[in-house]
Design brief:
Radius of gyration: 21 Å
Number of helices: 7
Structural class: mainly alpha
Strand content: 5-15%
Helix content: 25-40%
Length: about 220
């Protein structure tokens, strides 16, 4: 049985031949939508963190960078814009389309590349063999940006949400609990899971076709560029 290229859950039904499950397709679409804003917000974090008091009185051999190097890398040519444009170029090449036009500022380019990938996400999820690698890199790229603009406490994965949807299938979203929290909340349906239920979530780690109720509508054969 085929598995999702990102979460490695079994694919069945009308998604049996796909490369991403419905949940990971939806999550990737949301990440692509957020990346342009994250790229902009990162600009406010370019200034390096202050040196801790008492870190030493010896004069450094080299002056520190006037900007935060991690943020600079994410906002630079090889960061967010480079990753998005590389994947968009690969998509165009595999579909035998002309290379994407690259114009405007880096911010404009981030938006154009993210939109160009998002509009073709149904085809990517269903037909592109590299969809798993693509979705993984988009996820890691967003995590790298969020770790700077909105650092959060460590989280532990509990399992998949078992709350029934309208058609009777379980919600299936991955439920995490934040360190020190007394309850876990499903990011999709909002169900709260108290500690007494965490064992149940772990025992039902892979509910059958939990994402079926969240599959996005398929596009027509004609895909946007």
């Amino acid at each position: 049985m085929a598995q999702c290229g990102l979460c490695e859950r079994d694919l069945a039904g009308d998604r049996a031949e796909h490369h991403l499950c419905a949940g990971c397709t939806r999550a990737t679409a949301e990440r692509l939508a957020r990346l342009p804003a994250l790229h902009t917000v990162l600009g406010a974090f370019l200034a390096p963190a202050p040196r801790p008091a008492g870190a030493g009185s010896t004069r450094p051999a080299e002056a520190p960078l006037p900007v935060d190097e991690t943020v600079l890398n994410l906002r630079g040519p090889g960061g967010i814009v480079g990753v998005l444009e590389d994947w968009r170029a690969a998509l165009h090449a595999d579909l035998e389309w002309e290379p994407p036009r690259i114009t405007g500022t880096i911010t404009d380019r981030v938006t154009a590349a993210a939109n160009g990938l998002a509009v073709n996400l149904p085809w990517i999820a269903s037909s592109w063999p590299t969809a798993g690698d693509f979705a993984r890199e988009i996820r890691d790229l967003e995590h790298a940006a969020i770790s700077i603009v909105d650092p959060t406490p460590r989280q532990r994965r509990l399992g998949h949400c078992l709350t029934p949807t309208a058609d009777g299938t379980p919600c299936g979203a991955v439920v995490h609990v934040t360190q020190g929290a007394t309850t876990a909340r499903c990011p999709w349906c909002g169900t709260h899971w108290p500690p007494a239920t965490w064992g149940t979530l772990a025992a039902h780690h892979n509910p059958e076709e939990a994402h079926a109720g969240h599959a996005p509508a398929e596009q027509s054969v004609t895909l946007g560029r």
